[in-house]
Design brief:
The chain is an alpha+beta fold. It has three domains: about 170 residues, GAF domain (Beta-Lactamase, 2-Layer Sandwich), CATH 3.30.450; about 150 residues, Beta-Lactamase, CATH 3.30.450; about 130 residues, Heat Shock Protein 90. About 50% of the residues lie in helices and about 20% in strands. It contains 15 helices and 16 strands. The longest helix is centred in the middle third of the chain and has 67 residues. The relative contact order is 0.06.
Length: about 575
């Protein structure tokens, strides 16, 4: 056997050993370090490195072999892809040099860097796409890397790519398993009716675990008069990881933050290094703390953004791969469901309060006020009879009449007090501008018509009037009732008028009097106005005969359904 043949056999043995060593495990991190060490052994290099590319085609990770921990610390930050290292990124072909410093593409070495002369670099592809580059320097014995070294390293890189691909697939499978388990747990909590805030805490915890991140937070917009005009102000609703206790409940007013940008643009923002990213800035963390970051908007129904999920790693960590961003998108969707559920529950709670107030006000009006009103009428009749009876003593009759008059006045005051209470129930104090309740406005119209009619019309409500009737419809409704009562006072010569308003699928106002009815030659301009108002809202208007004589006016318009309880 010739010396050259013997050397080739030894090279093949070294190559086979290297290939076997990198294919032993499935852990990606372990596999990458084995690749670097095996590459150095294949070509007998003193130093070796693997530059893993990020999404921006720059070196995201730099794994070395041959340098001590002290030397690595002395050199400082790892390279990102300038000079000769960047040459292999821009032109992924093998590169062999006898002297690094003599090449015009070299940018030199940083202080405290070990001396290096000979250089051999080959690209490493995984599944047909660039994954990174292998860099070998300082051929042992002081010589240059040969053609045989280059062929050996190219063959090793081809075999190593399969080992890396298998390790990546294994890691991705494990990540998807964790993602699936977390997804199932969050869904179970949501379906079981657990408190939405507890679910949001779980979402942040699972996101930080699946993404192998260091901090995660969920911010929602709030109304804030001190915020910048036209810019959202956020509050951190939940936080996990770094500074979590300090972040919860904190306000974010910075319009240039990643949170604000993702919220306004309604798109996912992923940064390999948020601290140096000029697109936006990190807030609520010390400067230079965070590196890789993902901000995901929580887009609900109707493309309304409910908040932003932000997940980040410390500076210097590996950027988030695509599969992790995909998983975070799923967590953002579940956070959106939790926030929408919280809104629906809050709406249901407010609706329950409105319905309860509506019931109390209806009972007060239909029972207490009507009984007090009837009692007052009875006392007024007693007062008139006292005036017709010749008293045995004028002093005694006057005293009794005075007491009856005082009782009538007290009943009137009590009725006014109850009606004021009813208005308060229909228009409870809330933050921000207040809208007069529909019931209050209609009761005020009925009271205003009392003088013209000569008596008080009865008013009855059915359904969640104030909760369901929008302000635009209320404006039409008040005008319709005013016109109807005015017609009854001027033309009907009625002794009773009954007003009823029912809210359901439709809003139906009925005004019935016991008068003489509408004359055939009576002007119809007022009724035409009522019909026009109904038509504008997609409804109808009818004039019908009353059951016991008189006239019945029925004004009907459609209503939007109330939100149902979850």
């Amino acid at each position: 056997m010739s010396p050259r043949q013997g050397r080739r056999d030894r090279d093949m043995d070294v190559l086979l050993d290297a290939v076997v060593s990198v294919g032993r495990g499935l852990e990606l991190e372990t596999t990458l370090h084995r690749v670097v060490k095996a590459a150095a052994a294949v070509v007998d290099a003193r130093y070796a490195a693997l530059g893993v590319l990020g999404g921006d085609q720059r070196i995201a990770r730099f794994i070395t072999a041959g340098m001590t921990e002290a030397e690595i610390r002395a050199v400082g930050p790892f390279p990102t892809g300038h000079g000769l290292l960047g040459e292999l990124i821009r032109h992924p072909h093998p590169l062999r040099l006898p002297d690094i410093a003599a090449d015009e593409r070299s940018v030199g070495f940083p202080p405290h860097h070990p001396p290096m002369r000979s250089f051999l670099g080959v690209p490493l592809q995984v599944h047909g796409a660039p994954f990174g580059n292998l860099y070998l320097t300082e051929k042992r014995g002081g010589g240059e890397f040969t053609d045989d070294d280059q062929r050996l390293l190219e063959g090793f890189a081809s075999a190593a790519s399969f080992a890396v691909e298998n390790a990546r697939l294994y890691e991705e499978t494990r990540l998807r398993e964790r993602w699936s388990r977390a997804d199932d747990e969050i869904a179970r909590r949501l379906l079981s009716g657990e408190d939405p805030d507890t679910v949001l805490d779980l979402v942040a915890s699972e996101a930080i675990d699946v993404a192998a991140a260091d901090t995660a937070g969920l911010a929602v917009p709030v109304e804030d008069d001190e915020g910048t005009a036209g810019q959202p102000v956020f509050v951190v609703r939940t936080a996990v990881g770094i500074r979590a206790d300090m972040l919860r409940g904190r306000l974010m007013r910075n319009p240039g933050s990643f949170t604000a940008k993702a919220f306004l643009e309604r798109r996912v923002i992923v940064s390999p290094d948020a601290t140096s990213d000029d697109r936006a800035e990190v807030v609520l963390h010390p400067e230079g703390t965070l590196g890789p970051l993902a901000a995901l908007p929580l887009v609900g129904r109707g493309q309304r953004v409910l908040g932003v999920l932000v997940v980040a790693r410390v500076r210097g960590a590996e950027p988030f791969p695509t599969v992790v961003v995909e998983a975070l998108g799923a967590f953002a969707n579940q956070a959106t469901v939790a926030l929408e559920l919280a809104e629906r529950r809050a709406d249901a709670a407010r609706l329950a309060v409105v319905r309860d107030r509506d019931r109390i006000a209806r009972d007060l009006h239909d029972l207490a006020v009507q009984r007090l009103y009837a009692t007052g009428l009875s006392l007024q009749a007693v007062d008139r009879r006292l005036a017709d009876v010749r008293p045995l003593g004028s002093t005694g009759r006057g005293e009794i009449a005075a007491r009856v008059g005082e009782s009538i006045d007290q009943i009137d005051e009590t009725i006014d007090l109850i009606r004021t209470t009813i208005r308060g129930l229909r228009d409870p104090g809330v933050a921000g501008p207040r809208r007069l309740a529909t019931r209050s406005l209609l009761l005020a119209e009925a009271e205003a018509a009392t003088h013209a009619l000569g008596f008080a019309p009865t008013v009855r409500f059915e359904g969640p009037i104030d909760a369901q009737v929008p302000s635009t419809t209320t404006a039409h409704l008040v005008a319709v009732l005013r016109e109807s009562l005015s017609n009854a006072a001027r033309h009907a010569r009625a002794t009773q008028v009954h007003v009823s308003l029912r809210a359901g699928d439709d809003l139906v106002l009925t005004v019935v009097d016991d008068g003489t009815g509408i004359a055939t030659d009576a002007p119809r301009s007022g009724l035409a106005n009522l019909e026009r108002r109904a038509s504008e809202l997609g409804g109808s208007f009818e004039v019908l005969p009353g059951r016991t004589g008189g006239t019945a006016l029925r004004w009907r318009v459609p209503l939007a359904p109330l939100p149902t309880e979850p």
